[in-house]
Amino acid sequence: MKKRLFVWFLLSITVLTLLSGHAVKGAETAPEESFEQKYAQERLSLADANRYQTDVTLSEDEKQLDERLAEWKAEYIASCNGSVPDKMSVISDETIWSSALYAFCKSLPKGADLHIHSETLLPFDEVLAFVESRDELYIGTGQENRYILFCHESPGDAGEDELPVKEALMQGVIGREELKKQWTILGGEQYEDIWEWFELLFDKEEAMSATPALLEAYYKEAFRYCCRNNILHVEIRKVFSGSHEKAAAKAQAIRNAYYEVKKEYPGFIVSLVGAGLKRADLDRELTDVRLDNAVYIHEHVRDESDPEHIHDFLIGIDLVNEEDRSRPLIEFADQLDGIVKEHPRLNLLLHAGESLEASSDNVIDAYLLGAKRIGHGMNLYRFPDLMDLIREDDICLEICPVSNQTLRYVSDLRSHPAAEYLKRGVPFCLCSDDPVYQEHTMLTDDFFAAIVCWDLSLAEIKQLCMNSITYCCADDFQKEELMNNWEKQWEEFLSFGE
Ligand SMILES: [Zn+2]
Predict the structure, then answer these.
(1) What tens digit of pLDDT does each residue of 19-70 get?
(2) Helix 458-470 vs helix 476-493: angle between axes, to the nearest 10 degrees?
(3) Which residue intervals of the chain bear CATH 3.20.20.140?
(4) Of 76, 92, 171, 226, which is most buried with the most CB atoms under 10 A?
(5) In CATH, what number does 94-136+211-493 get?
(6) d(CA 62, ligand 1 centre) in Å
(7) What is the pTM of this model?
(8) C-alpha 279 to ligand 1 mean position (Å)
(9) How far is CA 485 from CA 109, 228, 272, 406, in A?
């Protein structure tokens, strides 16, 4: 036996030696790769390793739409003298509106807008039509109160230098174009600090949400507008002030509007995110009241549109305001942690990383506190290890390209860090932030800007649309419904532009 094994061993060694000799000989005789061939191969493998990462494999129909999309993109870029523009002045640029690419973005089934602030959904013209239609809304015409909106349920309460909005416009006391400037970012061009102007806009138009009746009427219009623009779901960040009862009445008014619109568009779903304010000059106790109101609404105002399946209506909490002038998140760590421990269905959806300061590290706190999503996360690129953790833990960033440009966090949209996040596999979705104040159209313009400035193809666009549903805070039942409805919309959309 041992002898036989030894013979086998010798034979195997001989065969192996012959084979390897042959292989070496073969390599010697094979034609050598040219420099160009080797270079091209290495280049291709490096380029492949650095492409956008998605889970999407395009079907035949999708590939065809992708080809049409590439043509529309090229057409638009050609109309900009052949170079990709650094800014997207979407509303004022007719080259954009009239492009086939813009029509594509309008019809795109966008999924959800997961980062949008209260009463900023409708575009300016529709806001104007709304305030004109409401008898209780007045506008200041004096020197001190000019362009400020007031709500008076009894006409006798109006001041001498206030007029019903409709009357002020009809009489020409207030001009429409001037009002547009005064109520949007357009009027802030000369401001060195754009946030100074931006925060004034919230104060000027605050009266639009003064009563539950106004809120209900506004949101009916706003939700219909979402549905017409192929948005299936919104999570609205709203600050609820005052007593529990007042806060709940406002949440109920928004819910009434949602129920009404849901009759017309059954697949549409609305959720609220209760926000506190974190600006350092504001009374900290007011933030406590607002977060407490959010918890109260979470517990008492639920989505009962389908009596057989009751869902949460207020699904998360956040803290808003300009980050660089606010208390750091770490100051609220205890409080936020306590709230979500006591109310485990409430999600932390925290603004963090909307900053250009090198020292700003709120994204670390947002991560440590267990945020489900991070609002903006624009400066995450400064924290490479954290970026890895956020990817591994599957935390989604809410990226708002047009807002970041408008509020001057990026001067050139082509170098927005989100393009890199997409290559590193950090999940994000596109969101619109404050469309009416920032003079852009909810999500449509954000997709347009991202497609052009980051050179996205249909695979990336599909991924971003799906992300907006995957990472929303609806419960599993609602999420499945949303995804099914989105898939139906997407199937129909594939013939767009044929
Ligand atoms: Zn925001």
Answers:
(1) 444 444 444 567 889 999 999 999 999 999 999 999 999 999 999 999 999 9
(2) 160
(3) 94-136+211-493
(4) 226
(5) 3.20.20.140
(6) 33
(7) 0.91
(8) 14
(9) 10, 15, 21, 32
